[in-house]
């Protein structure tokens, strides 16, 4: 009978499903093994931590992007928003906005503490995200268009704000968040992993997490099940903004400088990380675990290519091809799901 | 029997973990209307896909007109004159009728389209099936029935010998079905063979010459329709006696009026010519009662349900619960007031196909499963799922299974469980048994009875009159957005209902 067959099918070991689930991890391990054989230095702990440190900013953004893509949305504005948030925060830490716009005065050294800078960066990011979420849910403009607009607008805002060039030289407590270490582990890596765990808990174990998956899985069904679709969709862009702000703070700390061109092109790498990690651009499918693996995978790839002295131009080509292949795989997996 | 036009012999097809077709023979004679029947999952779709060239069989041979053929691509099948019209149409809505009919085969020369010729030929084809429409009309401006005619015209334009129709009547109103039946008979008279896949056995008895029944991927039987009856076919389909088919329940005990709607009005959308207007719709339903809502497609049944549930806005009218007026502007409002809706399109409007059964079932009642304000209490959730799995007899391997892997009947039970978990006062079910097999239909009916017995006020919408008559205690009919009548089940029969739905006559008790 129908029901019996479907039950049997469900109980069968599904090789394809298994591969789809662990493909990113398997690919990562294969890649690491390959690089290790070609270049033994690759596996040195210092290099591995280096990889993690390099990807931690991407990783923070990718966590936010996972929420967005789970609702079948996209955010292209993150690099620009990051630059803008970083500049505002840097200005705050250097003595406030008034100082910056006081013509002819030398900046006094009485800046604000690092945590005010961090809060500022995060607040700017969240406000930027909220504005975009508002445009998407209330003005009903597709996320692609809204955030394409945001990509340009926030970059413009950053350039306007940075009229006097980059803002550099922060207090040591600020810089620690980018350059410090606990034991051998760089602080940005710790920030990344802590927020990854937090985000995993939110998506996997909370009501809100369920709602994100539901809205991404089927908007109409979510609405008819009594979910507040608008607020869920808006919220993911606010969360994305939170991570853009946090990323801006950590990046500024690491470079000990904030500048208007920061974060250029980050959206592509971040979206690649999320998609490679198995999150479907169609929404409703994906995990933070996958995103972490996807992020590390991109980092390993870039790092390994550098060690092998592959030109950065070729690296860009490779990232581009991988993004397309990952989406092709996703589309294939979706059509398979539908056939079952 | 004469030499068959189409003969499929020993067809087998295996998918991972399931043998979808097991050595099936299928024959269709020339000029014959042949019903292909079976419960969901019996193998009908797979057989159709093989016949249309979308899938290749693992074993078996296909002969057409005595000649052995191989169909490895949909294009092969079309060239051989086998054209399939799927349940979900494959028309391009933003193109004209004639472009759709001749898509990919436009008449003309040198890469240019000869529009005049294309329009003239389209007109000739549509006249052949009694459709009088300007070939330059955009398909999106057509009704569902008219779009189906365009599909048929396209099939004819391919010089087809066999037209396969997958559930052609499921989206049509009764008068449209009649028209389709006339067309199908015409085509038969012109020498074409039609393969008809349907769940509506009355139609089989009325239209078809012969039938074939599949069960669990095997041939269960077949023969001339004239030599059997509906019960015989159902027995063959389910392999058991279905005694309770479309049975009534005992006289219900009715409580006070729970939901009342007065003067519900929704003006049409100027942008959308098909928008159905709700015009002064008033109705009520009591605790423990099942109110049937009957009408032809487009009569405003679904629109009434969606307006009550807050899924669509309405311009005027009042909804009261227990006599107190309530403001319902969104599904959230409706749910807060104890109203639930099982929407008509399970896959598009109810299910999260990419998610597990667990999430699908608990999505509306997460509020009750809350822990520490934000977390989902998964132990409680498991208990809830276990409870409804038993209560509704849902056949599933585990709550983590994707809901997409369940049969239609079990999917519908998951949706019902989602609402029952909310303990609604009023549950509106729109086409609760659409696309699910006979056995599961009976189960869903019994579930509706049980819900009513437990005191829920149920509003049931169905396009199938036998179903409306079976489940309802009282029936309200609609036509063109207006209430045209109300009748108690004991006094109603199909003819009376049909008259109320089409003529708007008899405002009975």
Walk me through the structure.
The complex is a heterodimer of chains A (340) and B (509). Chain A is mainly α and 340 residues long. Chain A has a single domain (50-94, 111-339), classed as ABC transporter involved in vitamin B12 uptake, BtuC (Orthogonal Bundle). Helices cover 75% and strands 2% of the residues of chain A. Chain A contains 15 helices and 4 strands. In chain A, strand 2 and strand 3 (185-186) form a beta hairpin. The longest helix of chain A is centred in the last third of the chain and has 28 residues, at 312-339. Chain B is α/β, with parallel strands linked by helices. Chain B has 2 domains: 6-238, P-loop containing nucleotide triphosphate hydrolases (Rossmann fold, 3-Layer(aba) Sandwich), CATH 3.40.50; 247-338 and 426-434 and 454-509, P-loop containing nucleotide triphosphate hydrolases (Rossmann fold, 3-Layer(aba) Sandwich). Chain B has 17 helices and 24 strands. In chain B, helix 4 crosses helix 5 (144-157). The longest helix of chain B has 16 residues, at 174-189. Chain B is globular and about 70 Å long. At the A-B interface, helix 1, helix 10 and helix 11 of A face helix 10, helix 11, strand 20 and helix 14 of B.
Question: What's the helix and strand layout?
Answer:
The complex is a heterodimer of chains A (340) and B (509).
Chain A: H1 2-11, H2 15-38, H3 45-70, H4 78-93, H5 96-100, H6 114-137, H7 143-161, E1 167-168, H8 172-179, E2 181-182, E3 185-186, H9 187-205, H10 207-217, H11 219-224, H12 229-255, E4 257-258, H13 266-276, H14 288-307, H15 312-339
Antiparallel strand pairs in A: 1-4, 2-3
Chain B: E1 6-15, E2 18-28, E3 33-37, H1 44-51, E4 59-64, E5 67-69, H2 74-79, E6 82-85, H3 97-101, E7 108-109, E8 112-113, H4 115-128, H5 144-157, E9 162-166, H6 174-189, E10 193-197, H7 201-207, E11 210-215, E12 218-224, H8 230-238, E13 257-266, E14 278-286, E15 290-294, H9 301-309, E16 316-321, E17 324-326, H10 331-336, E18 339-342, H11 346-350, H12 357-362, E19 370-371, E20 375-376, H13 378-391, H14 408-420, E21 426-430, H15 438-453, E22 457-461, H16 465-471, E23 474-479, E24 482-488, H17 494-503
Parallel strand pairs in B: 3-10, 3-11, 6-9, 9-10, 15-22, 15-23, 18-21, 21-22
Antiparallel strand pairs in B: 1-2, 1-4, 4-5, 7-8, 11-12, 13-14, 13-16, 16-17, 19-20, 23-24
Helix pairs in contact in B: 4-5
């Amino acid at each position: 009978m129908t029901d019996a067959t479907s039950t049997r099918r469900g109980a069968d070991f599904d090789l394809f499903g298994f591969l789809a689930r662990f493909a990113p991890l398997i690919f990562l391990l294969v890649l690491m093994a390959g690089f290790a054989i070609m270049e033994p230095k690759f596996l040195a702990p210092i290099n591995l931590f280096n990889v993690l440190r390099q990807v931690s900013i991407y990783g923070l953004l990718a966590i936010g992007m996972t929420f967005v893509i789970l609702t079948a949305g996209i955010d292209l504005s993150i690099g620009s928003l990051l630059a803008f948030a970083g500049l505002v925060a840097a200005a705050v830490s250097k003595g406030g906005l008034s100082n910056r716009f006081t013509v002819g005065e030398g900046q006094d050294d009485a800046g604000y503490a690092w945590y005010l800078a961090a809060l500022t960066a995060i607040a700017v990011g969240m406000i930027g995200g909220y504005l975009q979420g508002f445009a998407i849910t209330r003005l009903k403009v597709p996320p692609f268009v809204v955030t394409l607009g945001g990509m340009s607008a926030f970059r413009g805002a950053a350039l306007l704000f940075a009229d006097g060039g980059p803002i550099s030289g922060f207090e040591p407590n600020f810089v620690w968040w980018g350059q410090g270490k606990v034991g051998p582990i760089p602080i940005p890596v710790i920030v990344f992993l802590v927020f990854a765990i937090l985000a995993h808990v939110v998506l996997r174990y909370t009501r809100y997490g369920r709602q994100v998956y539901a809205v991404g899985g089927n908007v109409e069904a979510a609405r008819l099940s009594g979910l507040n679709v608008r607020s869920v969709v808006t919220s993911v862009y606010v969360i994305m903004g939170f991570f853009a702000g946090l990323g801006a703070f950590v990046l500024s700390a690491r470079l000990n400088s904030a500048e208007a061109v920061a974060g250029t092109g980050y959206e592509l790498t971040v979206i690649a990380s999320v998609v490679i990690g198995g999150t479907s651009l169609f929404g409703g499918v994906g995990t933070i675990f996958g995103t972490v693996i996807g992020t590390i995978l991109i980092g390993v790839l870039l790092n390994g290519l550098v060690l092998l002295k592959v030109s950065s131009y070729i690296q860009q080509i490779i990232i581009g091809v991988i993004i397309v292949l990952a989406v092709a795989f996703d589309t294939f997996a979706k059509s398979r799901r539908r056939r079952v | 029997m004469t030499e068959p036009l189409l003969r499929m012999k020993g067809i087998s097809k295996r998918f991972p973990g399931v043998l979808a077709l097991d050595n099936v023979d299928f024959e269709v004679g020339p000029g014959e209307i042949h019903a292909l029947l079976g419960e969901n999952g019996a193998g009908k779709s797979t057989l159709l896909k093989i016949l249309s060239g979308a899938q290749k069989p693992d074993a078996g041979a296909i002969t057409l007109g005595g000649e052995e053929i191989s169909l490895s691509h949909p294009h092969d099948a079309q060239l051989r004159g086998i054209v399939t019209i799927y349940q979900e149409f494959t028309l391009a809505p933003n193109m004209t009728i004639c472009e759709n009919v001749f898509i990919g085969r436009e008449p003309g020369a040198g890469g240019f389209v000869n529009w005049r010729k294309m329009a003239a030929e389209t007109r000739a084809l549509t006249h052949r099936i009694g459709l009088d429409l300007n070939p330059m009309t955009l398909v999106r401006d057509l009704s569902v029935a008219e779009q189906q005619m365009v599909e048929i015209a396209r099939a004819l334009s391919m010089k087809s010998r066999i037209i396969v129709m997958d559930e052609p009547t499921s989206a049509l109103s009764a008068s449209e079905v009649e028209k389709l039946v006339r067309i199908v008979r015409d085509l038969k008279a012109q020498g074409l063979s039609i393969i008809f896949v349907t769940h509506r056995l009355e139609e089989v008895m009325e239209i078809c010459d012969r039938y074939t029944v599949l069960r669990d991927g095997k041939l269960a039987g077949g023969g001339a329709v004239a030599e059997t009856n509906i019960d015989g076919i159902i027995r063959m389909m389910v392999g058991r006696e279905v005694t309770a088919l479309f049975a009534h329940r005992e006289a219900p005990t009715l409580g006070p009026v729970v939901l009342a709607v007065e003067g519900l009005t929704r003006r049409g959308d100027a942008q959308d010519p098909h928008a159905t207007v709700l015009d002064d719709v008033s109705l009520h339903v009591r605790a423990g009662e099942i109110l049937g809502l009957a009408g032809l497609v487009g009569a405003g049944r679904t629109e009434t349900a969606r307006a009550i549930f807050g899924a669509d806005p309405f311009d005027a009218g009042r909804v009261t619960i227990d006599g107190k007026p309530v403001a319902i502007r969104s599904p959230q409002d409706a749910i807060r007031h104890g109203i639930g809706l099982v929407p008509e399109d399970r896959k598009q409007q109810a299910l999260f196909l990419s998610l597990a059964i667990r999430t699908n079932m608990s999505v509306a009642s997460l509020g009750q499963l809350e822990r520490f304000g934000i977390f989902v209490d998964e132990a409680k959730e498991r208990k809830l799922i276990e409870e409804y799995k038993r209560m509704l007899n849902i056949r599933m391997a585990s709550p983590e299974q994707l809901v997409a892997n369940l049969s239609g009947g079990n999917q519908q039970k998951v949706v019902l469980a989602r609402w029952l978990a909310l303990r609604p006062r009023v549950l509106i079910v729109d086409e609760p048994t659409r696309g699910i097999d006979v056995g599961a239909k009976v189960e869903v009916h019994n579930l509706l009875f049980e819900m009513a017995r437990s005191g829920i006020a149920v509003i049931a919408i169905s396009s199938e009159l036998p179903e409306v008559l079976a489940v309802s205690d009282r029936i309200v009919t609609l036509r063109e957005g207006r209430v045209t009548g109300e009748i108690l089940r004991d006094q109603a029969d199909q003819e009376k209902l049909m008259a109320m739905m089409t003529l708007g006559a008899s405002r009975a008790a």
